[in-house]
Write a structure and sequence with these properties.
The structure holds 2 protein chains of 2 kinds. Chain A is mostly beta strands. Helix content of chain A is 0%, strand content 51%. Chain A is globular. The termini of chain A are far apart. Chain B is 0% helix and 52% strand. Chain B is globular, with a radius of gyration of 13 Å. The chains are: A mainly beta, B mainly beta. Chains A and B meet through strand 10 of A and strand 5 and strand 10 of B.
Chain lengths: 106, 111
Amino acid sequence: DIQMTQSPSSLSASVGDRVTITCQASQDISNYLNWYQQKPGKAPKLLIYDASNLETGVPSRFSGSGSGTDFTFTISSLQPEDIATYYCQQYDNLLTFGPGTKVDIK
Amino acid sequence: QVQLQESGPGLVKPSETLSLTCTVSGGSISSYYWSWIRQPAGKGLEWIGRIYTSGSTNYNPSLKSRVTMSVDTSKNQFSLKLSSVTAADTAVYYCAGPVGWGQGTLVTVSS
């Protein structure tokens, strides 16, 4: 089984700050990684696929990078509507989600 | 616009079988993988398994012994059965595919 870890588990930042979340896979998953945003009471929404490709309609302040085992998700300028929990998910071998990172406003 | 909608009982007794159906509307279910994911209250996402429209399945190893998925392409539906449920199976259950997720349905396991 491929295990996914994320850090930090939560963070507080100010509006306009750059926010970075990291995700690590227990083995090489190439670029088979998605990033999701989940707001309370809602289904997750796909933001980034194939590690670095922005889903259609997603604001350009969101970005992703990495390959192999180490990945990064960045919000270049945090907005109030970005308050949510963010999950990475690998799809190289079956599917596995990371534990999530809760982002809120300081 | 393709939409997914989960349906099924919101309350299941311990030791019984949880059964859910996902209806895909606004597009064809054919030629894709369709997944079930669950989320206990206040916790993270757990992938349960997926089914291809040919009927081929892959399950989470931790749930494999209790999970059965099926697909009915004539109805544009796919289904989940989870047997021998306990309180630990209480969660919001989502169906998901290449075009998005359903809104989720809460299933509570309780007598």
